[in-house]
Amino acid sequence: MAKRSTPLEIDPQWETVRLLAGVDEVGRGPLAGDVVTAAVILDPQRPIAGLADSKKLTEKRRQSLYREITEKALHWTVGRASVAEIDEINILQATLLAMVRAVDGLAVVPELVLVDGNRLPRWSYNSQAVVGGDGQIAAISAASIIAKVTRDAELADLDILYPGYGFAGHKGYGTAQHLAALKSLGPCPVHRQSFRPVRENRR
Asked: What is the pTM of this model?
């Protein structure tokens, strides 16, 4: 597995790449739900103001930017790895698999792929990992927004399917409310059985 990191300065060469795909993930830490990634190629002719790390935006602002990104981006796609895959191959490998699926799903082959973080999947794309990229690189920021809005909506749906756990609120993370629900109700089918808090509350 390739592992690279970059300094915080933006490489000026990146600005000249037209088909630059940004990639980010959401959902490595939660106890439930898929891990979701997105790949986005922005259109230099249609800039989007206000792109930032999705975690630093309000839900309303994320929703607004999501609509703008999906309208203006040259290409975008979502990849994922299921709960079963997370339990089978571990969360890190599942996250990398989801990244591959996202980039493979683009309608074009990107000239360069910039991935948030310090690890890259095994793939043939010209790529680089960028620590803190979701707050620095517009395309990665866009990917983080697409991934988070997508996953948050899915957890809201899971809250309806599996009431009592509070998925719509905590999005699967191990909050006190979620841990109390696990203790009371036991895991449901969308919980990651390989994660310790889930494993310890099996019935």
From this structure: 0.92
